[in-house]
Amino acid sequence: MRKWVSAILLGFVAAGFFIVLSDIPFGNNRMDVAKYYIDNGITETGAVNIVTAVVVNYRALDTLGEVTVLFVASLGLGALLHAGKDGSGNKQRASLVVRTGSRILFPLILLFGAYIFVHGHLTPGGGFQGGAVIASAFLLQYLAYRHYSIDRQKFSVVESISGSAFVVVGLLGLAIGGYFLSNFLDKGVPYSLFSAGVIPVLYVAIGLKVGAELAGIVAGLMESGRG
Amino acid sequence: MIYSALLILTMIIAAVAACWLKDLLNVVIACAAVSLIASLLFYLLQAPDVAMAEAAIGAGLTTAIFVLAIRRTGRYEE
């Protein structure tokens, strides 16, 4: 009985979607805003990567919200994991290949993550991707060494400072440029590293914040299982 | 074109497997496969920014976090 009811409801939802979506011609450009970004993005923001221009300039406020969501999620996870600790740890040692490989790869992965978010306005990628790469470097260390442990106090300091830097840059934009997160620095020459005004500053802040947060999540999960 | 079709087919198979399997470790691997193929498809569709985020977060960190969560709970679905 319940299965039939849910099947009928599902049919109604599918029919509704079909009726609405069948009116929209597939593959046509329905919005002019994308064209505006492509035409004016480089001159208005100085960022060659248009995705970055949208994420950290036109829609920077949304990015602040996104960073906040991640922060709240990691806070909740930290609170949950702090409550209970059990003694079952990983007893097996990682193999020699994993240990040696992680020793060689760890600085390179960190460097690559930093490269991604420093060049966010020039090449694909940015703060979130670079931060995730940095966190994966710490995950590799945790997998390779049984007694590896990061100093989570320092990580939360980095996280707090970079998170505050985002808001401070936004407020400076409000004071100098007239609206929150306005691009008040010199836009410079496109395609050069020091260009696009506040975008690289914001992306470095986001990269450090996301990296510290995700590394903290990984550390919390790995260490709570270790006891 | 044929590569994309092949990738999408593999992705659908992995997604269905993730629903059917009872061993949650296998499910996590199937989910990681879906994410990895999704990131490849994003790259083929000329969205490298999204592809990087999907590969790093979807295929990398999420898989690790799920495995750690399984280690702290139960491995098999009743």
Give the helix level of chain B as a range of percent: over 70%
Shape of chain A: globular
Q: pLDDT below 50 for ≥5 consecutive residues: which ranges of chain B?
A: none
Assembly form of the protein: heterodimer
List the helices and strands and how they pair.
The complex is a heterodimer of chains A (227) and B (78).
Chain A: H1 2-21, H2 33-45, H3 50-58, H4 60-83, H5 96-118, H6 127-144, H7 152-176, H8 199-226
Chain B: H1 2-20, H2 24-44, H3 48-72
Helix pairs in contact in B: 1-2, 2-3
Please supply descriptive tags for the structure shown above.
heterodimer, A: 227 residues, mainly alpha, B: 78 residues, 3 helices
Structure description:
The complex is a heterodimer of chains A (227) and B (78). Chain A has 227 residues and is mainly alpha-helical. Helices cover 70% and strands 0% of the residues of chain A. Chain A has one domain. The radius of gyration of chain A is 22 Å and the shape is globular. The termini of chain A are far apart. Chains A and B meet through helix 6 and helix 8 of A and helix 3 of B.
Question: Quick recap of the structure?
Answer:
Chain A has 227 residues and is an all-alpha fold. Chain A contains eight helices and no strands.
